[in-house]
Amino acid sequence: MKELSSAEVRSMFLRFFESKGHSIEPSQSLIPKDDPTLLWINSGVATLKKYFDGTIVPENPRLTNAQKSIRTNDIENVGHTARHHTLFEMMGNFSIGDYFKAEVIPWAWELLTSPEWYDMDPEKLFVTVYPDDTEAKEIWLNVVGLPADHLYEEPDNFWDIGEGPSGPDTEIFYDRGVEFDAADAKENYPGGENERYLEIWNIVFSQFNHLPGLTSNKDYPELPHKNIDTGMGLERVVSVFQNAKTNFETDLFMPIIKKTEQMSGQYKYGQDPVKDISFKVIADHVRAVAFAIGDGALPSNEGRGYIIRRLLRRAVLHGRKLGIDQLFLKDLVPVVGEIMASYYPEVLENAGYIASVVEAEEVRFNKTLSDGLSLLDGVIAEAQAGNGVIAGEIAFKLYDTYGFPYELTQEAAEEVGLTVDRAGFDTEMKAQQDRARAARSNKASMGIQNALFTDLKTESRYVGWSELTVAESTLTDLIVDDELVNATESGTGLAVFSVTPFYAEMGGQVADRGAVIDEQDHLVARVVDVQRAPNGQHLHKLELVGEIKVGAKYKLVVDQAYHAAVSKNHTATHLLDQALRNLLGEHTTQAGSLVTEDYLRYDFTYNGAVSTEDLQRIEDLINDKIIENLPVSWVETDLESAQKLGAVAVFTEKYGETVRVVSIGDFNVEFDGGTHANSTAELGMFKIVAEQGTGAGVRRIEAVTGRGTMNYLKNHDQLLNNAAQLVKAPQVSEIGDKIVALQNSLKDAKQQVATLESKIASQAASAAFDDVKQAGNFTMITAELAVESMGALMETADNWKQKYPSDVLVLAANLGDKVNLMVSVAPDAIKAGVKAGDLIKAIAPAVDGGGGGRPEMAKAGGKNPAGIRDAFEQASEWLSNR
């Protein structure tokens, strides 16, 4: 077997399948695009689902990739096992309805054993197959020549994740030798739980359709097009080539571990199994964090951001276990970039930005950590005084709020002879996971193939970039109620034409609308929507007003006013994208967009709200470019030439040999397939109407151009005129002065009200102070005052403190739909054990409220004024029991 670096293993895999006619798909962003079912890209096939479910038919049905992926369902295992990771690379080869078992199995064997490629010893390779898959078994034994004692039947070898494609799979294992046998290994065979036989490749034969309602795979019908989906974990197979005991002793992790050793100065990897866990956790987590931030995710308290924050905090805590008290993760980011530079140069290129985000989060966590450690001390003291057990919900709070791993709390507890309620912790963890799952989309993880659309091969040419009317186009396909028909004259249908000027919805831009006219100049259908079919044709959704026939010729006319409005907003989106990068930084990347007739919406990655000043700068820059009347032009060219032009890819896409590049003067150049204005002057004016956050590290800007801006300004003029009338300003320009005058009048009125309230409260208090009741060993005054604020109650309490006519004072204010409660306690009563905070907590539920405070004074709010009397009575009972 050859000695190969991780970069050589990856490159050789991709080159092998390229030699078999596969197109190499680039590794996509970790942040899923248009897939609400995933938090992260979690497998090599995740980015190819659109091909497997038939949504899109690829140009080449043979694909291969090395895809970065993140899985975080059991983070706690990282470092404790030999091969568990949050970030990993999955290499795979895929067939979309092309080759199947007869090709893929011999290819796998060739790659693994051929001296030209991986050159593994065939004697060390073992295979498992699904018991009912006699075809795969026959190929392994009789075509490949695998010895019978190297093949095992495994009932679990059936890949099925719910509705959609499914099928049997075959797994390939590498025998690492008898030295990896464990004395207590009960499953020391390929496919069993052991360290000797390492699974290095899984090949899925996606041949069945798991339809709704079916519970047994024996009932699944065969797919219209059978597929191949394989996965080889890079980290695992590299450990084989580098003869590493675990994945961590490879060139993918050791440079990070060595750098961590230097920063520790106290510990070396390989000397202490407990400390080794910390080295592994840091190496794993910093890789995941660097890649995730590089792809646009940012630390936060929800979704992906929460995962990043959690990984960062776990790494910091494990750094402390290695004696690293200073900021250190930021210094590991360039190391990650250097390791991965051969295939992921963007990590090293953006290392400065990534490190700055990591550093800011480290600083933030250091403060949180100090608070958490103080809380942990209190938790330990309380448990020592109690039953000697730290409650599961408390351990979970430390984990969830302060980033303390369960094992850290457990270790601290064990040091002082305490235990932690693990069952309670697990219950809280499961509840959180259930909430996360419920918040996510419940769509199927992969759609069900529709052979009607995937088999649609008719040629269809789009000309809408330059033409909005096609004088003659032939109707080639007509679909009604999921069936191909030759004609229809009512209802709705989907139509494909030989030539079309209608833009299909794509890249956030809505579809064109318009009309279909027959050769007698009669309107026969309205085009209300256009979508792309799996093979790229434009599917026109028609509302029929006359008969339409396959083979007949029609005139297709786009609604030009609607088209122009959408196109202007699309051009504005490009201007906004460039302005954001120019003014906020190149790390702002597009996270989604919507371009309609009325407005545009643009989502982008950014840490924190965009300031009012920056929004104005962005708006001004775009309007400057509109005034400059920059020409908007486009050209079709090859990918390399487009990149030389400096064209920006809005999303991490796979581009074909020919790409379309849109230029806005010398201000912006982007890959783009949409429609645009002819010049920036056509936009008229650009106006930002809203800016807000939509999720962790993602901001949204909504804006208008052209007539949309005019309508927006007209509405604002109307609002200002209405406001002028309301404040009785003769001119709009005088509204500000009038508002200031009204505010001053209101301030004076509030002061007068406060003075009157004080007098009323004083009078009521004088009467109340004479009504002292006995409650057990204490005296108490209760009073409901006709005041409107907590301030009035506090002023009454201040008067009470002048003479302390009772031990306890309980005041209430009925505010109509809510209640204010306040309790004050005299010094002698406090010494006797009466605390205002305890009393307020006891009586607040009577008014459907809650509160707290200090021993001498406490406040509460509630929603049930009818409970005030009950609150007073409960206060008397509470005091009587003291």
Structure description:
The strands form eight sheets. Strands 1, 2, 3, 4, 5, 6, 7, 8 and 9 form a nine-stranded mixed beta sheet that branches. The chain is globular, with a radius of gyration of 35 Å. The model is unreliable at 440-448 and 650-655 (pLDDT under 50). α6 crosses α7 and α20 (735-769) runs parallel beside α21 (790-803). By secondary structure, the chain is an alpha+beta fold. The chain has five domains: 6-244, BirA Bifunctional Protein, domain 2 (2-Layer Sandwich), CATH 3.30.930; 254-439; 451-558, Elongation Factor Tu (Ef-tu), domain 3; 563-715, Threonyl-tRNA Synthetase, Chain A, domain 2 (2-Layer Sandwich); 751-880, Diaminopimelate Epimerase, Chain A, domain 1. It catalyses: tRNA(Ala) + L-alanine + ATP = L-alanyl-tRNA(Ala) + AMP + diphosphate. It is an enzyme of class 6 (ligase). Residues 4-715 form the Alanyl-transfer RNA synthetases family profile domain. Residues 732-766 form a coiled coil.
Question: Radius of gyration from the CA trace?
Answer: 35 Å
Portion of residues in beta strands equals 15-25%
- List how many beta strands DSSP finds: 35
Give the % helix. Answer: 25-40%
Based on CA inertia axes, which overall geometry fits?
A: globular
CATH topology group of the largest domain: BirA Bifunctional Protein, domain 2
* Straight-line distance between termini: 82 Å
Averaging pLDDT over every residue, what do you get? 88
CATH structural architecture of the largest domain: 2-Layer Sandwich
Largest sheet: 9 strands, mixed
